[in-house]
Amino acid sequence: MSIFKAYDIRGLVPEELDEEKSYRIGRALAVFLEAERVVVGHDMRGSSEALRSALVKGLTENGCDVTKIGLSTTSMSYFAGVAGGYDGSVMITASHNPGHYNGLKICREMAIPVSGVTGLAEIEKLVESPLPGGSGRGRVEERDYREPYLRQLLSFAGKGRKLKVVMDCGNGMGGLLAADVAERLDLEAIPMYWELDGSFPHHEANPLVPENTADLQQRVRETGADLGVAFDGDADRVMFVDETGERISADLMTALIASDLLKGCPGAKILYDLRSSRVVPEVIRASGGEAICSRVGHAFIKSQMRQVNSAFAGELSGHYYFRANHFIDCGFFALIQVVNLLRTKGKPVSELMLPLRKYFSTGEINSKVSSVSVVLARLEARYSGAAISHLDGLSVEYDDWWFNVRPSNTEPLLRLNLEAASLEEMERRRDELLAAIRGVDP
Predict the structure, then answer these.
(1) Is the pLDDT confidence value at 412 over 80?
(2) What percent of the chain is helix, strand and coil (3-state, nearest 5)?
(3) Would you state the pLDDT for residue 410?
(4) What confidence score (pLDDT) does residue 442 get?
(5) What is the CATH number of domain 9-144?
(6) How far apart are alpha carbons 418 and 429 in whole angstroms?
(7) Does residue 95 carry a catalytic annotation?
(8) CATH of domain 149-356
(9) CA 20, CA 4: separation in Å to the nearest integer?
(10) Quick one: pLDDT at residue 107?
(11) What local confidence, expressed as pLDDT, does residue 405 receive?
(12) Given 95, 276, 317, 395, which residue is catalytic?
């Protein structure tokens, strides 16, 4: 299986990704970007520094100057690329994957992501081709973007009552910034797993999986905190927990943030991914905004945001994107917005979320199939009387329920998201769809 994925490069180390492969990626990237200057950051995994060194060697041998920013969140590497006016940026990380994985997240200028459809496939071909002689020797410098990035983030922080917040960094890169963000936000922070440790000794740094926030939920209840937050391994995603210890789905948090943001920019365009609850576009429109549905994936969302000049976008995976932050997805920026909102509202999170919990959803359910195309075709024929969309997989809309089925980018899986107006209808339709997906598999 290729390490060149839909949105980044990622694989097992050293079986799939090693220093030689990273070096060749560096050579290929310099050619593909036609770059003179590239900024490179890395996470805390045991393999990251060696992969970074090999990548830098490849870049400089093709005449590209490299600025190393050291340990970094992915969002900080994006920011450095923008703030420094670089031709591109690379972050060495495997995000939420276990410690024996690593990878690269690549951007053009202005933090524009390079995805499978905008360049990773071409880079892969260059990596697999014979390498020509290097075109020159680029220079290497080191620069610390930590403080400039913190100043950028905290420039959006407001004032208000002191909040008690449990912050679970999952031993990932969030621990690099958590203490400074908490202090400058004037939070009473309760730390969980802030130590940088690429073996992730406490739990996988993927807060989208409920079992990975169990410790956080318990700590929120034990301490009487106002809010709980969990960052993924490279801190570009965040999930929230209310003061009762209940998880808040990212689509509902998107609706809450959007309703508050629209007070300052009425009529703004807000993007939401097509797996989101119907309450999201309802709240955006009721708050005076223009709701725009987007396909899943940060590369697609960022591109669409730029095309329509969207002020904000939220994705069910816990990515939150802000125009004010150069369209960058950043867990800490989202945290700052939520803290500002809570201080303004003066109400507990659960009370603010209550009006948004009006529908019943399945969450994402995966089914292994032998033929993705056959199953999708049969589903479309079965539900042909509904409103049909092919924006991303198959979306089917009825008045009182809807579903989306999307193929995985890497496995023979179909991912089902379904929502209905009642719990009974949701459960009935869920069972009906799962039987159809799994039963028609040839």
Answers:
(1) no
(2) 40, 25, 35
(3) 64
(4) 43
(5) 3.40.120.10
(6) 8
(7) yes
(8) 3.40.120.10
(9) 15
(10) 97
(11) 97
(12) 95
